[in-house]
Structures are given as C-alpha cells and as structure tokens.
Amino acid sequence: MGPSKLELRHDGWRTSVILHKRYMTQTLYYTNANKEFRILEKLKGSNHVVDLRASIETSAGDRLLILEYLPHRLFTFMEDGIYDCTLTELGIWEVARQILNGLDELRRKNVCHKDIKPENILTSQKLPEEWVMNNCENSESIGPQMFKATELGHSNILIDDLVQKDNIQPPSDLLTIVLIDPTDLTELKNDFKIKFVDFNISSESLNIYDAEGTNAFTPPEVFLKTANTFDGVKRDLWSIGCSLFISAFGRLPFWHRVPIHLQLSIINEPIHWEHYRNCRPDLSNDVVEFIKSLLEKNPARRMSLDEALGIATKHVPL
To answer: What is the pLDDT of residues 136-150, one digit of tens each?
Structure first.
C-alpha cells in the first residue's frame, strides 16, 4: 500500500486503526495520493473495497489515511514466483466470487484498479481451514484468529501527537466512525470478507493508456501496445486470473526476475495446463477452465466480467 505505517490505538473500550501515508507536496506521490482519496471517496460503502473513514493533512505535508482495519493478506509471496498457499476448489470459487463482485463494484463506479494481486487483496479474518490445502500464513489452522500483540503498534501516539503539534481539528465524524466498540470487532471476526486496497495507481476511467502496475499481473496487450487504449475491466480480469492461478497452483503463471524477460514470457509463452492439471488432480475441469478463460492472451476472447461472475456465483453453495 505504498509508504505506510499501521497504527492501532486502544482507548478503554474503544479501538481505532490508523493507516499513515506520508507524501511530500508537489511530487507525483502527492498527486497520486489525492487521486487515491478521490477514488476511495467514490467507492465508499462498497462491500469489497477498503472503507475510507477519514483523512487528515498536516503542516509537514503528511496525509493520514484512516481506513477500516483488515488484518490479513490473501496470500504471501515467498520467492521466485512462489506463494505460501493453495486453496481447495471450494476456496477458489468463493475467493473468485468475492473478488469478481469487487471488480463489478469498481466497474459501476468507472474505476480500473490496475494492480490487483494477492498483496492488494486483504481479508477481514483468516481463511477458513476447509478452504486451505496447506498451512499458509493466512489460514485458521495456524496462529491466532485476529490480533497479534505485535499488531498493536505504538498505542495512543499518532493522533494525539499530531493534534498537539499541528493544531489539527480532526473531522467531526472521526470519533464516531474510527473509534469502534469491541462488538464491532466480533462482527468483523465472524464475517469473512475480501476487499481491495491500494488505489495509488488506479484510473478514474475504464479506458487505460499506460502500463502502470505489477508486471507479473499485467496482461500481454498492455506490453504489446496494439491499441491507443485498453479495456480496463479486461485488464483487471487478467490480474484476477493470475491471482486465482496462484490460489490453485501456489505460483504465478509467468515468472522471471528480469522485467523484460517476464514481459516477453507473458506475451509469447503458453501456460502448460496439462502439467498443472496433473499437479492438482483434485480440481475439477470446471475450475481449471474458468481460470484458463481469464488468462486468455487475446482480450477479445477473454471471459467477460458478467460471465465470470455468473459462473463463480453458480459454484458457491448458498
């Protein structure tokens, strides 16, 4: 999520969560920060987008982005394209359904994320154990359910110090929105939800002109530049396909340490699907073909969002 620091404050019966982003004025970071604030404001109330509670600007050029607390990443990158976790078929379909619902929310607000990947997909609680094939970091089968002591950070420092130093008047709804009762944390704990974060390079248009984003999750048409603009939804669908490929097989579909070699691999190399099917004989043809259709190199033949959402929803038990 960019240059950020998580602060968790305890105050009697109340708990607040503060995400601190520092942006120097008159820089690209500052411009992107303002755009990110606009996008998060536009997306407030979405089920699958991190909720912006408030923001504060200081005289030192800091911006405080106060977000809802989502304690877990979907998966964790290890090395050489390998991630720490694979999911059962039920887990893959449920993750797909929630991510695609999130993309639909972005589309309805005319937003293209441009950097969907497991590091930018946070969860309200650990993955249910029945969804997980191995003991990954975000699994209920290891570790505490919600909070670790190390996550409590520097209690009672950030807001108090800033108000004293800069004479800041926090937004009028700060205390009522950010400070939450422990019962709210119980509700969060009992409701597994996937949400997108990090809109720093996102676009306020579905027509994309640039190649910003993480190479390993970027579709081939962006590198080929065969058109002046690209379909932002199809771009995000490819990134979701990469994320679901990781959920099934524990690794990226394309990987190279050298960026230009990685780009050429995405453009030219096929995915050896039979090899991966043999690695996961427990997965049905339906789920493998679903991921395959999202990783279609030709965007005109790539599955549409509506079709993908319909298929994923059909496979999730009510």
So the answer is: 665 543 332 222 111
Among 219, 221, 2, 256, smallest CA distance to 120 is for 2
d(C-alpha 78, C-alpha 84), whole Å: 6
> CA separation (Å) from 161 to 156, 158, 308?
9, 5, 48
Nearest alpha-carbon partner for 83 in 137, 25, 33, 40: 137
User: pLDDT higher for 236 or 14?
Assistant: 236
pLDDT, tens only, 155-168: 222 334 444 444 44
Beta carbons within 10 angstroms of residue 44's beta carbon = 11
Domains 6-69+147-178 and 73-140+201-315 share a fold: no
Domain 73-140+201-315 class in CATH: mainly alpha
Sign, CA torsion 137/142/145/148: negative
One-letter amino acid for residue 274 of the chain: E
Mean pLDDT of the chain: 76
Among residues 1, 236, 214, 238, the alpha carbon closest in space to that of 110 is found at 236
d(Cα 49, Cα 98) in Å, to the nearest integer?
A: 11
Per cent of the chain over pLDDT 70 is 70
Cα Dmax for the chain: 63
The angle subtended at Cα 256 by Cα 253 and Cα 261, nearest 5°, is 110
Q: Any idea which fold 6-69+147-178 has?
A: Phosphorylase Kinase; domain 1 (3.30.200)
Gyration radius of the chain's alpha carbons: 20
What is the pLDDT at residue 61?
66
pLDDT over 50 (residue 215): yes
Domain ranges, ordered by start, for the chain: 6-69+147-178, 73-140+201-315
Q: DSSP class of residue 215?
A: G
Give CA separation, 244 vs 133, 195, 272, 299, 310, in Å: 14, 15, 16, 18, 16
Look at residue 146 and give its three-state secondary structure.
coil
